[in-house]
């Protein structure tokens, strides 16, 4: 999805010197950082399936951000496989401080907004140590975890929270809804701990997650929703023998 968004920015002529930065952003040493993201999966593609991805800019629940939306479909049938929404804000790559969107940058992007409806904001709760069912310490950000903006890639955060999810859930269920809210950037050498709390809602399993520095500051809040996993082809064959 991230690659398709980058290709979109390039195709509409907004690729500046930096990774996904517009020309006006590059002049001001500004970079995009993801603030919030939600991915909802209707069906996982199978091996060999061809997937088509649509992406577009939209309104965001903050004046200092833009939304990027994705729709993943089966290229042959048109069936919707997944959809995702995200909010992106700006950071100065030298000071590492968040920045307001300059009017010159807003003028670059606004003509390309396809959906002016503001995406519903994600509200995720803070998780405390004494509320967690599982606490994993000693999570260390490595050099290989960093992206081109020299902070941990958001996909790595997903791996960290899934690693701290209960094994019975991972074995018997599949992830169908992922929501993330990023609170601080994380760099090489930072030590974190991962907290997970399991709750049951409307017949589905739901987990609350939080990544925080060992020193106590929040890095990310998360929520995962799970549904019973469908049998794989291998499991179907075993059931017949």
UniProtKB/TrEMBL annotation:
Domain named Acyl-ACP thioesterase-like C-terminal: which ranges? 133-227
Which residue ranges does the record assign to the Acyl-ACP thioesterase N-terminal hotdog domain? 2-109
- Keyword terms of this UniProt record: Chloroplast, Fatty acid biosynthesis, Fatty acid metabolism, Hydrolase, Lipid biosynthesis, Lipid metabolism, Plastid, Transit peptide
GO CC, sorted alphabetically, is: chloroplast
Quote the Gene3D superfamilies the UniProt record gives.
Answer: Hotdog Thioesterase
**Protein EC:** 3.1.2.-
One MF term in GO for this entry?
Answer: acyl carrier activity
Predominant location category: plastid
The places in or outside the cell where this protein is found are:
Plastid, Chloroplast
In which residue ranges is the amino acid composition biased (Polar residues)? Answer: 230-241
Q: Where is this region: Disordered?
A: 222-241
The function of this protein is: Plays an essential role in chain termination during de novo fatty acid synthesis.
Task: Give the similarity note.
Answer: Belongs to the acyl-ACP thioesterase family.
This protein is called what?
A: Acyl-[acyl-carrier-protein] hydrolase
Species: Papaver somniferum
